[in-house]
Amino acid sequence: MIRHIVLFKLKAFDTSEQKEAKMQEIKTALENLAPLIPELKRIEAGINRNENEQFDISLLTEFNSMEDLHTYAIHPEHVAVGKIVREVLEARACVDSVI
């Protein structure tokens, strides 16, 4: 099993309300991938509430194999969500581990 963990730091927003709305949009879009991509065995997206940390959104996904992770990565529904994220992305960190 492969656990794919991603952290996203978003660019600055004019207001905290705008940032909150975008984070909720991204969280919902990510979680909505669950029934659309059969290779995706688990998905959890979270919004960071600790203002002392630098990342804004966490993503935890699990796959049976690296091949399944690759299928997810290029799936059109995932690519569409990626476009939403990239519009406001400042930084990203990722770890793919065997569990």
Task: Output the keywords.
99 residues; alpha+beta; 3 helices; 4 strands; 36% helix
Notes on the protein architecture:
It is a single chain. This protein has helices spanning 16-31, 66-74, 76-86, and strands at 2-10, 42-47, 57-63, 89-98. With 99 residues, it is an alpha+beta fold. It has one domain: 2-Layer Sandwich (Alpha-Beta Plaits). The protein has a 4-stranded antiparallel sheet. It is globular. 36% of the residues lie in helices and 32% in strands. The protein has 3 helices and 4 strands; from the N terminus they run E-H-E-E-H-H-E.
In short:
This protein is of the alpha+beta class.
Topology, pairings included?
Layout: E1 2-10, H1 16-31, E2 42-47, E3 57-63, H2 66-74, H3 76-86, E4 89-98
CATH top level is Alpha Beta
Counting helices, strands and paired strands, the structural category is alpha+beta
Q: Any idea what the CATH architecture is?
A: 2-Layer Sandwich
Percent helix range: 25-40%
β-sheet strand percentage? 25-35%
**Anisotropy-based shape:** globular
Q: Mean pLDDT across all residues, rounded? A: 98
Radius of gyration: 13 Å
Measured between the Cα atoms of the first and last residue, the distance is 5 Å
